[in-house]
Specification:
Number of strands: 10
Shape: globular
Largest sheet: 5 strands, antiparallel
Strand content: 5-15%
Distance between the termini: 63 Å
Number of domains: 2
Helix content: 40-55%
Number of helices: 15
CATH class of the largest domain: Alpha Beta
CATH architecture of the largest domain: Alpha-Beta Complex
Strand order of the largest sheet: 1-2-3-5-4
CATH superfamily of the largest domain: Aminoglycoside phosphotransferase (APH), C-terminal lobe
Bound molecules: 5-S-methyl-5-thio-alpha-D-ribofuranose, magnesium ion
């Protein structure tokens, strides 16, 4: 029997014994345990251990030293500690929105957490064109509670300083610096995945647009230096588990103190990928219209609900005397919205032409359609980045998307 006093990467067969040792009372003594590896992310191994007698389950997520997406890329396994710590904190800030953490094992770099049963991965559900009318309301609450509440507006400054130290996350941030903010524009590591029919379009619109490079550089240095809030750092629809009544937000291993607009921008960009997939792939006109109008508007609704809840929480909980000075809240919100739309543009671009693509787009089988939707995405993304200071609400955001959709018809 292993003593788990030194790190090794577990296989599914190793995990039941590990759970028995680490959480002896979780399963009953006579439980018959089975385990499956269920992860489909780029970095880690995710195991579900279940008791065959009663379907009781637990998740063990272990960080590997090499990435699943690329064996050449090595990463600090400290990301497991970061994930366990932020989930524990977020459970206080936004109760019920994140899975419960049972323990973190810093030798095996493994987290034991609540299984999000009766939920499904949101990206998968969206590709099956399922509609979740409550999502904008749910995610906007999560965003305000986790972002505004960890910022200097509300959190005691010394506490926030301490927390920002706990969440220094250089390896994972470096991935974002390269994959989100640099390579999609410069391709200096030759790791971009450009869909062949759009090679010339990408060259002209992304690699040769110097005005765009300048705006991306500004956003990159904002990401590097603006320690505003404890952000999730990778809030796409693959980081949400969902059912018609509830969401869990998980997988926050990219967390660090950064600009709140990064999280907000990521999630709205990913809702636009869902729209693209629906518009490209749903054959029935009524079903297409129902799904697509929900998916498109959802991004605007998230923005408007965020603004509304941000204003209420700010007024109720503001904790710094200078943050109450007339006009500051409006100024602060303007910067968040500008970051949000800029970051949304970057996420749209990097998931389309960068190293880590999204299934919503890569699963569009018709090459001509896929090329068209990729061009819509890139055109919209560029406008969001360049015009980010002038977009003030969900309507203005949706107008840009709609204009770009029309321009490629
Ligand atoms: C090398 S990791 C590629 C991407 O997967 C994660 O989900 C992050 O989005 C990262 O950029
Ligand atoms: Mg992830």
């Amino acid at each position: 029997m292993a003593d788990y006093k030194s790190y090794f990467l577990m296989k599914a067969a190793d995990v039941p014994e590990y759970v028995r040792k680490k959480l002896p009372d979780f399963f009953s003594k006579n439980a018959i345990l089975e385990c499956k590896e269920i992860g489909d992310g780029n970095l880690n191994y995710v195991f579900r251990v279940s008791d065959k007698n009663n379907n009781k389950t637990i998740i063990i997520k272990q960080a590997g030293q090499e990435l699943r997406i690329s064996k050449e890329m090595k990463l600090s396994v400290d990301r497991g500690r970061i994930e366990a710590q932020i989930l524990t904190l977020q459970n206080c800030l936004a109760p019920g929105f994140v899975p419960h953490v049972y323990f973190y094992d810093d030798i095996m770099c493994a987290i034991a957490m609540e299984d999000m049963i009766e939920h499904e991965m949101m990206r998968t559900a969206l590709i099956e064109h399922k509609i979740f009318p409550g999502f904008a309301d749910q995610i906007s609450t999560f965003l305000v509670n986790t972002l505004l509440f960890t910022s200097d507006i509300i959190m005691d400054h010394k506490k926030k300083e301490g927390l920002s130290g706990d969440f220094i996350n250089p390896d994972l941030c470096e991935i974002s610096h390269d994959l989100v903010f640099s390579e999609p524009f410069l391709n200096y590591n030759d790791r971009n995945n450009v869909f062949e029919p759009n090679t010339e379009f990408v060259k002209k619109e992304l690699y040769e647009d110097e005005e765009l490079h300048l705006e991306a550089a500004k956003l990159k240095f904002n990401f590097l230096t603006n320690a505003q809030s404890l952000i999730h750092g990778d809030l796409h629809t693959g980081s949400v588990f969902i059912n018609p009544d509830h969401i869990f937000v998980f997988d926050p291993e990219f967390a660090f103190y950064g600009p709140m607009g990064y999280d907000i921008g990521n999630i709205i960009a990913n809702m636009f990928f869902a729209w693209c997939n629906g518009d490209a792939c749903i054959e029935d006109a009524t079903q297409r219209s129902d799904f697509c109008s929900w998916a498109l508007n959802c991004g605007g609704e998230i923005i408007d609900k965020f603004i509304q809840k941000f204003n209420i929480a700010y007024d109720e909980k503001v904790n710094d005397p200078m943050a109450s000075v007339r006009g500051f809240k409006e100024h602060y919100l303007e910067t968040i919205l500008s970051d949000t739309f800029g970051m949304a543009g970057l996420e749209l671009i990097r998931r389309t032409v960068g190293m880590a693509n999204v299934k919503d787009i890569t699963s569009i089988k018709d090459d001509i359609k896929r090329a068209k939707y990729e061009r819509i995405i890139i055109t919209a993304a560029k406008r969001l980045i360049k015009e980010r200071n002038n977009i003030k609400d969900g309507n203005m955001y949706l107008k840009i998307l709609s204009d770009c959709i029309r321009s490629q018809q």
